[in-house]
Amino acid sequence: MLTGRWETSDLTGVAARVHQVPKQINDWICIEEASVSDAELKMAELHSYVMRHYRNQRTGAIVTMLLMCGPTGPVAVHPPTACYAGQGYEQIGDVLVHRVVLGQQPMAESSNVASTETHRLMTAQFRKPGRANSSKARIFWSWSTNGSWSTPTSPRLEFAGTPALFKLYVTQEAHDLLPLDGTTPPEEFLRELLPVLRQSVFSLEPAALAAAS
Q1: Does the residue 2 lie in any domain?
Q2: pLDDT at res. 8
Q3: Please, is 181 exposed, middle or buried when counting C-beta atoms within 10 Å of its C-beta (0-12, 13-18, 19+)?
Q4: What is the DSSP letter of 146?
Q5: pLDDT tens for residues 2-57?
Q6: Within-domain flag for 80
Q7: HSE of 3 in the Cβ direction (CA atoms, 13 Å)?
Q8: In Å, how far are 9, 28, 32, 173, 208 from 63, measured between CA atoms?
Q9: Is the four-CA dihedral 57, 37, 203, 107 of positive or negative sign?
Q10: pLDDT below 50 — which residues of the chain?
Q11: Domain assignment present for 5
Q12: What is the DSSP letter of 177?
């Protein structure tokens, strides 16, 4: 169950849903499609992914979004803390928890109480050592099966038995360390992105997603 060794489901239909992410998300517009290396694809056993650079029309800020889908075992491992270290980066500071709290419209016309939903991501900053004025990369990452994003201590155990798992990275390159005060471009982008992912990628109920695989 942990590795998907006996899983025979075809994940093609579910994995292809990553391509339903729109190229414009409010003020954010895709300026370039990107790709991951064949080695990364093979290591993560990805069935599908979309990688894009988005620019904010209002501020000019640029962030990179990578949304991946594949069998739970491989996708649950290889967080940036491992992947970036393997590429020669060093981590700056601790891995921190970042919560995105989204407010919703009232659940019924007669109700004046709006519901909220909380998504949990991890974030850390990295740099290439030994380079003067080297750029830093602030990365946010999380996992999901149904549009609610979380970062369990052991994703492999938490999501065991789920045929398909989605993993999200949102990254910004900068010359200086980015504060975590809710106003940086990645945080602003995430507040716009996560509701759109729920509507576009996860519009089916979890049971329907599993059945589609």
Answers
A1: no
A2: 44
A3: exposed
A4: S
A5: 555 544 456 778 888 999 999 999 999 999 999 988 888 887 888 899 999 999 99
A6: yes
A7: 2
A8: 34, 9, 11, 8, 32
A9: negative
A10: 1, 6-8, 205-213
A11: no
A12: P
Residue-range definition of the domain harbouring residue 125:
12-212
Structure token digits, residue 89: 């980066």
User: Is residue 86 in a domain?
Assistant: yes
In DSSP terms, 90 is beta-bridged to 127
pLDDT at 15: 85
Cα dihedral angle (144, 148, 151, 152), rounded to 10 degrees? Answer: -90
What pLDDT sits at residue 103? Answer: 75
pTM equals: 0.83
How many domains does the structure of the chain reveal? 1
Residues 6+ apart with CB under 8 A from 26: 192
The Cβ of residue 48 has, within 10 Å, a number of other Cβ atoms equal to: 19
Nearest CA-CA partner of 142 in 197, 104, 209, 182: 197
Q: What is the dihedral of CA 165, 125, 198, 209, to 10 degrees?
A: 0
> Could you tell me the two tokens for 112?
């004046």
Per-residue model confidence (pLDDT) at position 206: 44
Give the pLDDT confidence score for residue 204 in this predicted structure: 56
